[in-house]
């Protein structure tokens, strides 16, 4: 492992220890103990309210994603040297084409999943946002606001001055690596992912939980079928399977 990789790994460990206690405080004792997973059952009691909480969660998401890039992408680590500010300024550019050279799964699946995670962070801190899928004006209004938030997250992820692809790895220094695809697909695809995962949570995950009270099955279904929500929970200091108003040991109403 190179010196740069060690620095990144140590930074990730330090960040993990700063976030983990908040999540562990809500985690079930032992492995997954349903009676202890109350989380923030009635809302976002363990999160900062409004803009401050959303900004904190989104910044954490950006830090985690860019640390992962630095750890796992050789091309990113190769660009960590040199004149930081000079290379960053030259990397920020208006894209001249649609594509950015990334693979189709990265652009059309991975980035929308991340955009949805940013959107869920906003939803978690919007007291007026419905927590489940509903074909109502308030639902769609809240999800469009989450899309706008995801667009801002995407812009920061691509070219922002804090933790971005332009700042860490100098993506864009080569004009062929700057494309409109990320700026468009991340928020719009993220909206599709948010709505899809909301619907899956209401009609599939709920269906599973109505038929079993096994906490392992419930937690696994929540995480596997709502990956973006799992990610947003993690960077917000919640257990990955957290649901507002629906702890793991909730009891379905009698039919």
Report on the structure:
There is one protein chain. The protein is mainly α and 255 residues long. The chain has one domain (3-235). It has 9 helices and no strands. Mean pLDDT is 80; it is low at 1-48.
Radius of gyration using CA atoms only: 19 Å
How far is the first residue's CA from the last residue's CA? 58 Å
Q: H/E series, N to C? A: HHHHHHHHH
Beta-strand content: under 5%
The percent of residues in helical segments reads: 55-70%
Major sheet details? none
Mean pLDDT: 80
Show unreliable segments: 1-48
Short key terms for the protein model shown above:
single chain; mainly alpha; elongated; disordered N terminus
Short description:
The protein has 255 residues and is mostly helical. Helix content is 60%, strand content 0%.
Layout of helices and strands:
Blueprint: H1 3-24, H2 50-72, H3 74-78, H4 84-91, H5 104-124, H6 137-159, H7 180-211, H8 215-225, H9 227-235
Helix pairs in contact: 1-2, 2-5, 5-6, 5-7, 5-9, 6-7, 7-8
